[in-house]
Amino acid sequence: MTIGNDTALVLFSGGQDSTTCLGWALERFARVETVGFHYGQRHAVELDVRPRLREGIAALKPAWRDRLGEDHMIALDALAALSETALTRDTAIVFAENGLPNTFVPARNLIFFTFAGALAFRRGARHIVAGMCETDYSGYPDCRDDTVKAMQVALSLGLDRRLTIHTPLMWVDKAGTFAMARDIAGQAFLDLIVEQTHTCYLGDRSHRHPWGYGCGACPACELRAQGYAKFRADSPA
Fold it and tell me: What is the Cα 16 distance to its own chain's centre?
C-alpha cells in the first residue's frame, strides 16, 4: 500500500468504528491526527478511553507510532442543550413519533464535520476520516452516504480547499468491522478494540462481555453483540 505525504484527521470518539477507522487511516497517510467532541453525551466515558486507545494503537506498530500526530478535543456543550435526546439526558431509549430513535442528536454529525473541516484547514489536512455506516443503519439520517457526500462538497466550497471525507465502514456491517480490524493489524488490534473501545449508550463499563464492555441491552450494545457473534461464526478461532 502506497503511503502519501498527506495528513488525515480522524473523527475519533473512542468507539469500535472510529478506532477501526483510525487504524485504516494510519495504514494510508503519512500523518494522522485525531479529534474528539464533548457535547454533554450521556456516555462521556467514551472520552476517557480515547487516550488509552491512542497509546495502545501507537504500540502496535512502529510506523503507526511515527504517523500518529496530535489529538484535539472540541467542546460543543450547546449541542446537548439544543437536542435533549436519550444520548444527552437520562431517559429511556425509544423510537419517536417521526420514526427516528430518540438517541438521534439532530445535526450532530453535520456539526462534527463543520468543526473538523475548520480544524483540518488549520492543520493542513486534506482528508477527514469518519466511521459513519449505512449497512447497520440505525435511523440516523446524518450517517447516510448522501449526507456525507453533500458535506464534502459544502466544506470544499466553503473553505475553498479540496477536502475528501473517507468513510471506510459505510457499506460494512459490524461483523465486517471486527474482521476489518483484524485484517488491518491482526489479533492484537482486534483485542484492543474489544477490550478498550466503548460503544454502550448508557456508558456502562462495569459489565464485560465477549465483545467488550457495556450494559448489553441498549441498541448500541445489541448491535455490537450481534456483530461479534456473526464475526466469530464466520471466522472461528
Answer: 7
The mean pLDDT value for 117-125 works out to: 96
Q: What is the pLDDT of residues 186-214, one digit of tens each?
A: 999 999 999 999 988 888 999 999 999 99
Count of all residues that appear for the chain in the document: 237
Residue type, 109: N
E-assigned strand segments in the chain: 7-11, 31-38, 68-75, 127-129, 164-166, 208-209, 212-213
Instruction: Please name every residue paired with 36 in a beta bridge, in sequence order, or none if there are none.
Output: 73
**Which amino acid appears at position 133 of this protein?**
C
Q: Which CATH architecture has domain 7-234?
A: 3-Layer(aba) Sandwich (3.40)
Contact predicate 83/199, CB 8 Å: no
Residue 104, classified by CB atoms within 10 Å of its CB into exposed (0-12), middle (13-18) or buried (19+), is: buried
pTM equals: 0.89
- Amino acid symbol at 63: A
For the chain, what are the domain ranges?
A: 7-234
Asked whether 96 and 67 are in contact (CB, 8 A), the reply is no
- Please write down the long-range contacts of 224-232, taking CB distance under 8 Å and 24 or more positions apart: 224/16, 224/174, 224/199, 226/174, 227/136, 227/173, 227/174, 227/175, 227/177, 227/178, 228/174, 228/175, 228/178, 228/194, 230/173, 230/174, 230/175, 231/174, 231/175, 231/176, 231/178, 231/179
